[in-house]
Amino acid sequence: MKSSSWRARNTSINQDCGSRIEDRVRGETAGSSQSQLITPQSCFRVVITGASSGLGLALARHYLVCGADVAAIARRSELLQNLAAEFPGKVHCYALDVRDVAAVQQAACDFIARVGVPDVVIANAGVSVGTLTEYVEDINAFGQVMDINVLGMVKTFQPFLASMRDARHGTLAGIASVAGFRGLPGAGAYSASKAAAITYLESLRVELHGSGVKVVTICPGYIKTAMTNINPYPMPFILGADEAARRIARAIARETSFAVIPWQMGLVSVLLKLLPRWLYDRLFAHAPHKPRGLLASEFEEPKKAPEPSRPGAKVLTI
After folding, report:
1. N- to C-terminal Cα distance for the chain?
2. I need a surface site. Which of 51, 127, 241, 297 has the fewest CB within 10 A?
3. Measured between alpha carbons, how far is 177 from 78 in angstroms, rounded to an integer?
4. Which residues carry out catalysis?
5. How many Cβ atoms sit within 10 Å of the Cβ of residue 203?
6. Cβ(159)–Cβ(73) under 8 Å?
7. How far is 227 from 224, CA to CA, in rounded Å?
8. In angstroms, rounded to a whole number, what is the distance separating the alpha carbons of residues 90 and 114?
9. Are 111 and 119 in contact (CB under 8 A)?
10. pLDDT by residue (tens digit) across 3-55?
């Protein structure tokens, strides 16, 4: 009964959030008070990694506008403090690296002790960088991408899971990517990490079947952030970070086991997966590569536009 009532509250909160955020942004508050516009939900608790910028920041703001208490996790303390100043008393800042097991566990213990067991944990932190196996210096980049994008997700979920299972409710949401559906040339580390994340989340979902804890896999396409602003080429079906956050929150509220956002990229992904290997190889063998030597992430804003990985090559990121 407790689990079903939580799900009803979770769904209600998230389905109402989109319109409340739009009203707040547009200032359409005529005929309603501020308290009616944004109803505090003191029992709704959300944990978000990579929350200092980009999609993570948009997700944090989305839930905060809905009245949630948010554990904002990222490396850049000053940006987390800016968010906390914007929403006094609702943001719990944890400046840490998701690769640091002890730091993540300490943050989880602190949040649970202060606020309670989270209703939603979103493993959003991730990095994207071009890699080529032939370069020995790219081995380190492979390691960092896999450590953050895959193991960082595991390290984010692990310290919350036991408490959520005991409570028999909650949602673990992992941000993967459509780049995990097929191997993209010049993006071996990124594609492999997102493919691994998709498979890991599926394993976790099956493991937790019947436990009351749901697992949601989110595979976004292009999202307009600092990481994609440097891309000099068209990005089909690109979404603003706020709109992407709204759609992701809706998928989480519905406890959708697997969601591609936007839906148009879902169609593209299906077509890509249906391509036979010989045709996929022929079509993508000469595709432009991601830039090498730059770890652009939700942790770290790109400091300059990347150089192409080879003369004349264009940048491609997903």
Report:
1. 41
2. 241
3. 28
4. 190
5. 11
6. no
7. 8
8. 12
9. no
10. 444 444 544 444 444 444 333 333 333 333 332 333 334 349 999 999 999 99
